[in-house]
Each structure stands twice: as structure tokens, then as C-alpha cells.
Design brief:
single chain, little secondary structure, two-stranded antiparallel ribbon, two-stranded antiparallel sheet
Length: 469
């Protein structure tokens, strides 16, 4: 017959067949006892009290002796006070937990009276409700009569809404609040208990489709349904997974603006992405079109022309007002925009200013000369800032001179041999002879012998020394 720990302890303490693990004598119904709070093993109160007192004194003496032998590592002040352990489960307790009073199982009453022959309460019980608190999350105290051993799992059935909030489920409190450390498996089990098993049905992040998975916890996955999507300017469309674009990028009512006298009907659509093409939507002047990348237009009225006289009041560089360059104002957006004789000075992407005279259109690549120093520092040159030398992959090529490094390696027999080596300054350290040369080499061997693959110095992939590694 399978018995719980509570049932076994109750039977043994009632029949007087339980033994003290310290003195090996029987624990009678009228004996003063103490039960371990971890394993619930009962002991004679005077036995466990003497055991704990002796263990605290012994452990404190050992901790103080260990601290005196190694003063450089100060011990924990609490360890110097000592500790004692349960003889059965070896759980450690502080000196303040040495049992000195005879208490009932629930710990609320001291010196409980032995039960009468007609009482159903076990010995050493206060015969009142246990009322011990259950694991974290459970709000229901134990309702059994004060008893030995652990409290049984909470039997209360909770009314919990499922994850999709459609149904109310009855779940035992102990199934959700078991007091055990949470693992991935236990979390999945608890999530499954709160699932009604029906279709989740909540609106997904796409804002169009609903989740078709079973009722689940947490956010829904990304929508994987394919549908046709149209760009902002309306020139392109593509078939793509719905969840790739977010609701924030979806613009309702996109259109191509037209003039009021146009008979072409307005077509509206939902734009969801930038196709990268030029917008080309007409301006209000009917002469120019938008040269920006694909973007949404929602108003049927064309936007004002950026070249109209009301929009442009200075020369292209912005340093001179048009009123001082023209005898009369520009009549419309097709009228030419005069330039002044001052430098353009508009900032370029590199940080320099454009050095050309005031001009229309975009600025050309930067023509500022910048100095370049090779890797070993022995050669210098200049190049135009906006015209770097690029390799086949479009990356800027590092400037290197053709000088071969003649610094002696740590072996003392071979030279470095790398072209434009960043460690070529060590050549001067290996000019000496004999012992002096070896001593200077030893002082710099750490940098000399550093693995080029781990070094912060850029490596030359065409270096013959590295190709042999």
C-alpha cells in the first residue's frame, strides 16, 4: 500500500514505532520532539538540541582556525558563528535555529497537550487547522488539522481565462503553483493547461489576418500568408508574405496627384513599401515631376513645384538673394535660376565643403587633397578625397609602399620579408651584433612573434610569409 510521507509519519508517531535517529530510542506519544523543517524527520528535543549546540561550536572553531591560517582571504562573518545540520537530510541551519522549545507541527503553539484517546489528531499536534502557507503564488493556507510531514498540494480549483480569453477553465491551484523551479518543460505544461484547444483567433501583427493556431500564450507568430502588395508610387507590385511589412509602413489611400482639369479618374490603393524607383508624380506647375524615391501621396491636389518663384528666393548656394541678381523677379518655375560668383560651400558627405563656384544641380565628388601615410610609415602621398582607389568588391584599397621589411625574426636567422610591414620599426633594434643583438631581439620578441591572424595590425593577404602559415 502506497502511503504519503504525512500518512506514514502519522501512523508511526501514533503507534510509537518511530525512532530518534540520534539516540536510536523510540519516540513515545508523550515525548517532547522536534521535526526537521526540510525532511520532517522527528527527533527527541533534548537530542537534537545537544546535537545542534555541539555542531555549532565545532564548525565555528574550524572556521576561525581556517581564517587565522589565511588572513589574506577574510571569511564570511556568518561562517565564524558556525552552523548545524539535520542528521537525516544534512540541511544547514544557523545557530539561531537551534531548537529549544517543544512546539506543535504547525509551529504556532508551544507545549501541545497529548491528545485524548477519543481524539483523531496525531500526537504532538495542537488539534487546530494547520494554516501553513503554500508555495509562492498560492493564496490558500493548508486546511488540514495540524499534522506531521509536508502539506498536501492545494486542492482549490481556480477559474482562469484561457490565453485567447474565450473560455473560463477550471485548473487546480497546485498545478499552476507547485513551488518548484521553473524550467522550459514546466512552463510549456502550465501554458498547455491554460489553453482551451480552439483556434486562437486574435488579430496578428499584420492587422489583416487572424491567428489560426491553437489557443496559446504570448504574441502570435509572424503572418505567413502570401498576398499581393503594391508600392507607394503604384509602379510596382509583388507577391510576398503578409507579415514581412508592418502596419506602420502600410499607407491607405495612396494615389497619383492630377490637376483639377484632368478627366482621368483617381485610383487609390494601399502602399506598403518603397520600390526604389523615382516617384515622378507631377507638381502643380504641370512642368516638373517629383525626383524623390518612391513615397506616398494621399492628396489628389498636386504638391507645389519646388522651383516656383515663391519657393526659391536665393541662388543655388544660398549665399545671395535673387533680388540682388535679377532686375525683375522670375515669372514661373521654368525661368532660369541665376548663380552668384561665391564658392558653393555646401557640405558634402565626407564632411568637406564643395569648392566649386555657385552652381545648379548636385555637387560633384570632393576634390580636396588629403594626405596618406603607408602602413610602415616610410612613405607619404596625397589623393582626392572623393576619388579613393577601390578593389573589385568596392572596398577602399589601403595605401602601401613597396619597401620590404628587413627586421630580424625571433629565430635570429630569418628576416620578416613582408611588404610595408607595420612592425618595420624593429629593424633599428636588430642592428647590433652578438649578445647585444640577441638582447635587443629578446626585448621585442612578444610583438615580433605575435600571430598575424590574431594581431591588430592589418595583414597583407599576398604576403609570402602568411601564405606559408
Amino acid at each position: 500500500m502506497n502511503q504519503t510521507l504525512t500518512e506514514r509519519l502519522t501512523q508511526e508517531l501514533t503507534s510509537g514505532t518511530s525512532d530518534c535517529s540520534i539516540c536510536y530510542e523510540s519516540i513515545t506519544r508523550t515525548a517532547r520532539i522536534h521535526s526537521c523543517s526540510t525532511c520532517y524527520t522527528p527527533y527527541h528535543l533534548h537530542c537534537i538540541s545537544a546535537w545542534a549546540t555541539s555542531a555549532v561550536a565545532s564548525s565555528a572553531e574550524k572556521a576561525q582556525l581556517s581564517a587565522s591560517r589565511d588572513p589574506r582571504n577574510p571569511p564570511d562573518p556568518q561562517s565564524l558563528k558556525g552552523h548545524w545540520s539535520c542528521p537525516n537530510c544534512a540541511t544547514k541551519f544557523p545557530p539561531s535555529s537551534i531548537p529549544t522549545k517543544y512546539k506543535c507541527y504547525c509551529g504556532r503553539f508551544t507545549d501541545p497537550q497529548p491528545p485524548s484517546k477519543s481524539s483523531t489528531s496525531p500526537p504532538h499536534s495542537c488539534a487546530k487547522p494547520c494554516m501553513k502557507q503554500r508555495p509562492v503564488g498560492c493564496k490558500h493556507a493548508c486546511s488540514l488539522t495540524c499534522h506531521p510531514g509536508p502539506c498536501p498540494p492545494c486542492p482549490v480549483v481556480l477559474k482562469e481565462k484561457c490565453h485567447c480569453q474565450k473560455r473560463v477553465l477550471g485548473i487546480r491551484c497546485s498545478a499552476l503553483n507547485d513551488g518548484k523551479a521553473e524550467t522550459e518543460m514546466s512552463r510549456e505544461i502550465k501554458e498547455a493547461l491554460k489553453s482551451c484547444g480552439e483556434e486562437h483567433g486574435k488579430l496578428m501583427s499584420c492587422g489583416i489576418h487572424t491567428c489560426q493556431e491553437k489557443c496559446h500564450d504570448g504574441p502570435c507568430r509572424e503572418c505567413d500568408q502570401e498576398r499581393a502588395k503594391k508600392c507607394y508610387c503604384g509602379k510596382e507590385s509583388k507577391l510576398e508574405m503578409c507579415g514581412v511589412t508592418s502596419t506602420s509602413s502600410r499607407i491607405e489611400g495612396c494615389l497619383v496627384p492630377t490637376s483639377q482639369d484632368s478627366d482621368r479618374p483617381l485610383e487609390r490603393w494601399t502602399g506598403e513599401y518603397d520600390c526604389g524607383s523615382v516617384c515622378a508624380a507631377p507638381y502643380s506647375c504641370s512642368h516638373h515631376t517629383c525626383d524623390l524615391s518612391c513615397h506616398p501621396h494621399t492628396s489628389p491636389t498636386p504638391p507645389p513645384c519646388p522651383y516656383s518663384p515663391s519657393e526659391i528666393t536665393t541662388c543655388p548656394c544660398g549665399n545671395t538673394p535673387l533680388s540682388s541678381l535679377l532686375s525683375r523677379p522670375r515669372s514661373d518655375c521654368l525661368s532660369p535660376i541665376p548663380t552668384c560668383s561665391k564658392p558653393c560651400s555646401r557640405p558634402l558627405s565626407c564632411g568637406h565643403a564643395c569648392q566649386l563656384t555657385c552652381h545648379t544641380g548636385s555637387c560633384p565628388p570632393c576634390t580636396t587633397s588629403i594626405p596618406l601615410v603607408c602602413r610602415c610609415g616610410s612613405s607619404k602621398t596625397t589623393r582626392l578625397c572623393g576619388s579613393p582607389e577601390l578593389d573589385d568588391k568596392g572596398n577602399e584599397v589601403e595605401y602601401k609602399c613597396g619597401r620590404v621589411c628587413r627586421a630580424m625574426r625571433n629565430c635570429g636567422r630569418h628576416v620578416c620579408g613582408r611588404v610595408c610591414c607595420a612592425l618595420s620599426y624593429q629593424e633599428a633594434l636588430t642592428v647590433g651584433k652578438g649578445k647585444q643583438k640577441r638582447r635587443m631581439m629578446d626585448n621585442s620578441w612578444e610583438q615580433e612573434m605575435q600571430d598575424p591572424r590574431e594581431s591588430s595590425v592589418p595583414m597583407d593577404e599576398s604576403d609570402p610569409i602568411l601564405t606559408r602559415m
